[in-house]
Amino acid sequence: MVCMRSVVAVMAIAGTVLASGAAHAQETDVSSSEGRAPITAARFAIVIDGHEIASFTRFDSMVDPSTSVPSQAILLTGGHTYSPEINAWHEAALMGRMDVARRTCSIVMYDYKGTPVATWRIINAWPSKYTGVSTKNGRGLATEGVILVYERIEVSPER
Length: 159
Fold this sequence. Notes:
Layout: H1 8-12, E1 16-18, E2 41-48, E3 51-56, E4 58-64, E5 69-79, H2 84-94, H3 98-101, E6 103-111, E7 116-130, E8 144-149, E9 152-157
Antiparallel strand pairs: 1-4, 2-3, 2-6, 4-5, 5-8, 6-7, 7-8, 7-9
């Protein structure tokens, strides 16, 4: 369980947020001092131009191991469908077409009812690594993952 005082803390520290479900029965406490109930994250969606391009069950902030400082990268894993949009976005970054690859997107955290509970607006993001659908997770489940590098992030709690 990752406990934090606010949604901002999710990105401020190196941590992991797992979505609840069959594979992950984790609860993320993003309650504030105002006494709000903890939020149980069910999934995290990448949204570009109002269109959801992929959905994941795990959200990790990345840390530079040499300095222990959070880097400007996010790891999303546990996607269960192939995303041609992320693949094309990643290909643009691999080909050095950063004018196309740098995009502003959002990561939306949904609770178990499907209600958005937090949104991270990611400015000038691009996928530095994309693992498509893979069964290397040891459970035989097909999952995909992406590392998003970004220049700036803004957080807005939904509730």
